[in-house]
Amino acid sequence: MNLSIAYLGPQGTYSEFAASTYARWLQQHHQTDTARQAYPSIAQVLRAVAQAEVDICVVPVENSIGGGVTTTLDMLWELDMLQIQRALTLPIEHAFLSQADRLQVVSTVYSHPQALTQCQKWLETHLPEVTLIATNSTTEALQHLDADPTVGAISSAWAAQIYGLPVLAHPINDHSDNCTRFWVLSRESSQSGDYTSLAFSLPTNDAGALLKPLQHLALAKINMSRIESRPTKRSLGDYLFFIDIEAGLDSPHTRAALDAMGGCTETLKLFGSYTLLPMEEVLAQTSTPKYL
Ligand SMILES: O=C(O)C(=O)Cc1ccccc1
User: How far does residue 225's CA lie from ligand 1's centre (Å)?
Assistant: First the structure.
């Protein structure tokens, strides 16, 4: 069987590293061959799966410093048909790449907004005057770095190798324990696993409106491991709530709690149940760096 996997490109992104880690795990545990396909934005990666151009995708969803990857959450709600098959967490170390001979000559820095956030203090300390430019991925600007020594980019040491670019500083993330969680998504229904992710909108915006659906989880003694709000984009102050619970959809107990939740939400979307890929084991078996 040959499975096509979409990821955020171009070559050398953290998403590509996550996708290739997952591909290797599939080969080792399920003898499944894979073919990877890069797309220029997270939105296009997710659409490629929804429109059946590819079988699955691997996308970033949350970072320990920068929080939720908003495009992933917004698109998941919008597309309405993608299901989470697995989650994997990667430790991430950022590097500063440039052809400049010293930091003082750099005037512009490119990177993905998540990477700019994760290195905010380092940038304020070492490059306080620079213009920061957000890109679709940490590697989008790398091919242009050769031409201009006044520009730099935040990417991985792995990407520096791929593009043959000098690393001026590494690691530069503000917190050493910097991790990003990725989801493997497909169109296939996923009903079993240790975690379930879902999102809902509320029918009213009044006192206790959020408490009502959450109370059903508390009553069922189901632990919530994440909650995050995103604007509904209908009106200011109107939110969607994305939550992860530590329970699988294949349990009647979980189903009953979610059915009760459905009674006090406007729209409730289930994104599936899944387990975490055992990353210690997976990364130990590879020759690729533990830290990127
Ligand atoms: O741009 C990348 O390399 C990505 O894969 C997105 C991202 C950016 C920063 C941290 C983790 C993932």
Answer: 22
